[in-house]
């Protein structure tokens, strides 16, 4: 009978809630490899005239120098949790320490490019309130360490212990690959560019004219960006809800897990392109507090392709108490363009615009930052005005044009009163878990 050997004990998981930690050691060889490849691709090519031996010797010298720098840099970067603060130390000659209260946390993303997936590494991105320089990136961590740190940060932001187990999730929507493929192709810009590309290629072959490549190549690059880019980005898209917020997972070559805590979504818009109406699908975008500039546009899409009824279900989940689909929308009386309409109920300000591409924008009264009623010289002569509700930066621009002056003033006053009442009765998103517990009447 074969002898039984005891199984090797499992390696204990790193406790990210205690002490200081460093990035994964694989960060050092990765940096050295990148610098050596850049040297070979640029100066190395020019140095080939001196012989392959000199090139290899110089590359080795560059790699050794890069290794020494990467080692010292890695040693001087550390992070840890101190109370409800995230502390990050960086810098070589100039030491920089950042201590960030997690009550300012806006979103936590775990990003895994293809190479990092192979190596079992991940990058943790922490978005904070405060502008372009507020983002913190920890690259690279072990995958399990990154996910555990993400859960710990979200728990601290909710007012719970950092050792709280990861919150369970409730499945909401999984995007079928066939629907994503068809929706991305079934768009007027994509179809027009594809037909024009085919015409240029056919004309070039028929008349043996290679000059058409001057127009065909840019069209092909544009198609790759507008079709293949979103296709690869949103493949394996999965959305779920959990107590710590909305969770989104997507991506092939860059797998991403995005978590938006409760209360961070400020406004939502539902976009329905002309050709998508026959498919019954829409796109859902949002203004998310904390994301600014390029990061805002990169992370504003909540659902790239989704059935229309599920889009409204998502809005109702993000803004509890709202029933956006049932809000009565009133068309513009004067000066409105296309299908412009406005609706206001006790919970949200809703607008609809667009003739070919229909856009519905929703701003809860509690999220309104400022209100405006504008009327230019021509508008005043026509007796109309535009009502606008401002939110943090993002794709949503809630505005209703072509409203009669008396109606516009009535809407403005009504929204201002409801917004004040909503903010007075609704607490902010900070420490939402402990706040809800303390508010429990049974305690």
TrEMBL record:
Residues 432-443 have a biased composition (Basic and acidic residues). Residues 413-443 are annotated as: Disordered. The keyword Cytoplasm does not apply. It holds the Pfam family bPH_2. The chain crosses the membrane at residues 28-46, 52-72, 172-190, 196-223. InterPro entries: UCP026631 (IPR014529), YdbS-like_PH (IPR005182). It comes from the Bacteria. Residues 74-152, 242-314, 344-413 form the YdbS-like PH domain. Keywords: Membrane, Transmembrane, Transmembrane helix. This is Putative membrane protein.
